[in-house]
Amino acid sequence: MEDEVLYSTVVFTRFDDSQRRAADPVEEVLYSEIKRHGEKPPSQSIPEPTVEAAASRTPSYRTAIACLGLLCVLLLAGVVGMSVFNIIQVSQHRTTLELYTNESTAHSKLKTETAALEKEKEELTVQRNQFNNTLRSIIQFPTFPVRAFCQIRDREIHCEPCMMNWIQNGSSCYLFYNGYDWKSWENSRQYCVGMGGDLAIIDSREEQEFIMQNSPFYYDIYHGYWIGLYKNPEVWKWTTGTKLNDGFWIKPPHPSDYSCGMVKPSSNALNSWAPTYCGMKNKWICEMSAVEWPDKL
After folding, report:
1. Phi and psi of 137, rounded to 5°?
2. How many structural domains compose the chain?
3. What terms describe the molecular function in GO for this protein (predicted)?
């Protein structure tokens, strides 16, 4: 049975000798606990929890600790896994980058080598064409006059497109015979053929002007230079068989005119052709293709 506690109220009044208070004094109330004699004071200690209560609280925080530990393990495993994954990815990326760099270097090298081969191919093609053109020019001669085209200077062979005493104009060489052994049209042509060419064929205004610039006056106004123009029987043709469409005649030819054509030295370069007796002795003009020598002999 619990102890009964009796409370009593004791009032004390404080009196100040130096000053009296006009108001009522303030009462101070003190409480005192009076215990019965011989009774033990009640225990002030906090009652300890029972075993059941402690047991009921223990699993909750152990579970929380276990969950936190498991979460830490999972996080650590995730971090380790991500680190390993990143390492693998970086390694693969580095390997891919190295392969790309090697392939890029090899591609650049291959491209450079291909360009060099293409350039060499072009040079070889040019040389091949030059050799073919040279052979075409050479086979025109019964016996090719090497010394007429080529000379040795400073222990090196130097070859010209035209023989000595011939003049080059474009892709052709011209010989303006200036000797005293004048010939007929037919004999003049044989001379040119023997040199590897033929009587000159004029098929442009530029060539006509070139011919006249190198055809000086000689002997009298009746003589001139044979060219590869003839009439057969009523049609004027070139020695190649090509029909003449137009010309640089002094005056238009008449059907009754002679059958061989020549150029006469004239102040008017575009009017200098004249039909003449084929047996007349004149000088002549030979034409042949310029020899295209390879750049490297």
Report:
1. -70, -40
2. 1
3. carbohydrate binding
Which amino acid type is present at position 285? I
Q: What domain range is 235 assigned to?
A: 146-289
User: Given this model, what pLDDT does residue 131 score?
Assistant: 79
* Residue 11 DSSP label: E
- Residue type at 104? S
Question: How would you class 187 by CB atoms within 10 Å of its CB: exposed for 0-12, middle for 13-18, buried for 19 or more?
Answer: middle
Q: Of 284, 181, 183, which is closest to residue 229 (Cα–Cα)? A: 284
Position 278 in a domain: yes
- Looking up residue 193, the CATH number of its domain turns out to be 3.10.100.10
Domain presence at residue 81: no
The angle at the Cα of 217, spanning 285 to 279, to the nearest 5 degrees, equals 55
- The tokens for 269 are 């370069």
Burial class (CB in 10 A: 0-12, 13-18, 19+), 57: exposed
Neighbours of 281 (CB within 10 A): 13
CA atoms within 13 A on the CB side of 191: 22
Instruction: Tell me if 273 sits within 8 A of 250, measured CB to CB.
Output: yes
Residue pair 253/262 in contact by the 8 Å Cβ criterion = no
Closest by CA position to 195, among listed 169, 220, 176: 176
User: Which region among 9-13, 218-222, 236-240 has the lowest average model confidence (pLDDT)?
Assistant: 9-13
| Within-domain flag for 56 | no
Closest listed residue to residue 227, CA positions, set 189, 173, 197, 280: 189
Q: What is the pLDDT of residues 121-168, one digit of tens each?
A: 988 888 788 778 777 777 777 777 878 888 888 888 888 889 988 999
pTM summary value? 0.57
Which secondary structure element, helix H or strand E, spans residue 115, and what is its range? helix 51-138
Residue 10 placed within a domain = no
